[in-house]
Amino acid sequence: MTPQAATARATRVAELLRDSERAVVLTGAGVSVPSGIPDFRTPGKGLWEKVDPMEVAHINAFRSDPDRFWSFYSQRFVGLVEKRPNRAHEAIAELERRGLVRGVITQNIDRLHRMAGSRQVVEVHGSIDRCVCPQCGGRVRLDEVLDLLSSGASTPECSACIAPLKPDVVLFGELLPEDAMAEAHALSREADLMLAVGSSLEVFPVASLPGITLESGGLLALVTQGPTPYDSDAEVKLDGDVVAELDAVMAAL
User: Residue 20, exposed/middle/buried by CB under 10 A (0-12, 13-18, 19+)?
Assistant: First the structure.
């Protein structure tokens, strides 16, 4: 693609954002890759290239062997807590501050949208911000969980139940939280523009959200590398580096 064509596409996304009244952003793992967080399935780099998710990130793995589960998840927690938002997160937060988008629907659990300043964030896969006790429903903040892990606990436990704590994220084998998905569906249905950033749009049920916007008469713009099932339905697609592409969009606004 020529530089002129890339600029024209970024300008088109900016025009769509200016013209919309109910835009919403949908993000996937690709928006956090520039922050040093690997995505899940990129050949040679993805997180699931190194471990079998069915063994370390499935609800049955947590239930049957919490120590083994936490031997993986403790490293993931420590790795994620050190990460900081990148300019893509900051651009999305700025769009909300300017009143150009109503909110963010994200598949990510890393909290980076909130750290960047986004206020209306629907975390459909949960967040590392807290853990929950499956027995009593008690919630434990991330800093407390990290303290437990740093003190040598192989599995952080609920102080009331002495039961293994579970990260408040959606594991394999679990349904997505009803409230979050209901809010995501409502935002998608009401949106006159969905800007999908850093997502392959292949994992359901989140992959159905762009279709909901399109069926309701809204438009779709994509900012993601690699093909998606919605490429032919999108008004425009930017397929370069997510930070550079959103920088170009912001410059065109």
Answer: buried
Which positions are annotated as active-site residues? 125
Please tell me the CATH superfamily of domain 1-37+85-125+175-253, with its number. TPP-binding domain (3.40.50.1220)
Overall average pLDDT of the 62-85 stretch: 87
34 burial (CB, 10 Å; 0-12 / 13-18 / 19+) is: middle
pTM: 0.90
The class of domain 40-82+126-169 in CATH terms is alpha beta
The span from the CA of 171 to the CA of 112, in Å, is 19
Are the C-beta atoms of residues 27 and 197 closer than 8 Å to each other?
yes
Average pLDDT, the chain: 90
Give the containing element (helix H, strand E) for 186. helix 178-190
